[in-house]
């Protein structure tokens, strides 16, 4: 019972205190609302435009970024990045003929050079990742159409592989790297001849190994050429010939053939002998070769012999029929360069026809002595 009374008394106190508290809280709330209304009355005209402006700017900025992103995506889908077209090109020609096991060379014995070309300018493309790309050399059928535009499939269908049981068709380093758009293909050789292919000829091709986004690089293809077995090099004609090459190295004179035997019988064994006899007595040299050599063949052989590089040495010959102070000046193959008269030099182009005929007659008359002089110089 006592506990019940205590509970009821406490309840009464709480309820009595609660009413007073409610009045105080109500009064406080009314006062706070009045203050807020006062602040709103004074600040609203100032804050509202400012808040509106800030909100507007933020919304426009966010909306602009969103629209720009949508526009970029649309442009990327409808207008992809433009691709660049480049092409590889051989910068020098192959040195022909080509033999198996022999180094494939360019003009004048130089290494083969390949350039990365920009077709729009015709210049070497020397910047960007593509200008230092990795290259690969491959072999193509000789009848491949390298004039028209070809596809990757065209290239694949015309690549020549080694014969069954044979070594890879190309020996050496078939890979190279472009340096500022130029690559050097060195120390490459064929291991097999081209006689077994459908065209009996090969072409060399070079392509890019690396891949680049938005860059298409066309392969380089050489002209067709024949590859002969290395043993054929033993009979190879030299261009140009040297003075001491055997005479059969000249065009139209086959080794151990009829012309070769005829020349040997006349003691004409090398290119120097051939040119010497030509300058001394061309008609006699023509007779030595016989009627089997046509005029056209003769011109081809003679042009080849004349392409020989001569040394700069000169000789002075004083024949018995000349005056004491007169001598003939000639080069190493008996070609008259001029006349020495009283220690004054007269070049051949300034000599009269009579003087030239006199020199020629003396040359022929004293041929044995002159040939002996030339043979041992």
Automatic annotation (TrEMBL):
Major location (coarse): nucleus
Gene Ontology cellular component list: nucleus
Ranges for domain Calmodulin binding protein central: 243-308
Keyword Signal: no
Residue span(s) of domain Calmodulin binding protein-like N-terminal: 86-230
Boundaries of every Calmodulin binding protein C-terminal domain copy: 314-359
Keywords: Activator, DNA-binding, Nucleus, Transcription, Transcription regulation
Region described as Disordered: spans on this chain: 1-20
Gene Ontology biological-process annotations: regulation of salicylic acid biosynthetic process
Cellular compartments annotated: Nucleus
GO molecular function annotation: calmodulin binding; DNA-binding transcription factor activity; sequence-specific DNA binding
Similarity comment: family membership: Belongs to the plant ACBP60 protein family.
Identification of the protein by name: CALMODULIN-BINDING PROTEIN60
Organism name: Arabidopsis suecica (Swedish thale-cress)
């Amino acid at each position: 019972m006592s506990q019940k009374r205590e509970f009821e008394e406490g309840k009464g106190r709480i309820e009595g205190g609660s009413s007073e508290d409610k009045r105080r809280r109500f009064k406080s709330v009314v006062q706070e609302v009045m203050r807020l209304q006062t602040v709103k009355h004074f600040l609203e005209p100032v804050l509202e435009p400012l808040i509106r402006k800030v909100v507007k700017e933020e919304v426009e900025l966010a909306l602009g970024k969103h629209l720009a992103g949508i526009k970029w995506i649309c442009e990327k889908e409808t207008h992809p990045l433009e691709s660049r077209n480049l092409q590889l090109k051989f910068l020098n020609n192959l040195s022909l003929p080509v033999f198996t096991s022999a180094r494939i060379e360019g003009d004048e014995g130089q290494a083969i050079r390949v350039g990365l070309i920009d077709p729009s300018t015709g210049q070497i493309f020397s910047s960007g990742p593509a200008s230092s790309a990795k290259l690969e050399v491959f072999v193509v059928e000789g009848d491949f159409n390298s004039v028209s535009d070809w596809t990757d499939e065209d290239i694949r269908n015309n690549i020549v592989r080694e014969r069954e049981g044979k070594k890879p068709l190309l020996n050496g380093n078939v890979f190279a790297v472009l340096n500022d758009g130029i690559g050097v293909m060195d120390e490459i050789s064929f291991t097999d001849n081209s006689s077994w292919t459908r065209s009996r000829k090969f072409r060399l091709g070079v392509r890019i190994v690396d891949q680049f986004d938005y860059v298409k690089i066309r392969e380089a293809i050489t002209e067709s050429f024949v590859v002969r077995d290395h043993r054929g090099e033993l009979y190879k004609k030299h261009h140009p010939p040297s003075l001491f090459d055997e005479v059969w190295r000249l065009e139209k004179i086959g080794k151990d053939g009829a012309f070769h035997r005829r020349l040997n019988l006349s003691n004409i064994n090398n290119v120097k002998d051939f040119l010497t006899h030509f300058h001394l007595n061309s008609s006699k040299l023509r007779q030595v070769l016989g009627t089997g050599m046509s005029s056209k063949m003769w011109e081809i052989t003679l042009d080849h012999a004349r392409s020989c590089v001569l040394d700069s040495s000169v000789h002075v010959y004083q024949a018995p029929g000349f005056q004491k102070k007169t001598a003939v000046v000639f080069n190493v193959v008996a070609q008259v360069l001029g006349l020495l008269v009283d220690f004054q030099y007269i070049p051949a182009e300034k000599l009269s026809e009579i003087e030239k005929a006199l020199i020629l007659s003396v040359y022929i008359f004293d041929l044995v002595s002159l040939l002996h002089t030339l043979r041992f110089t």
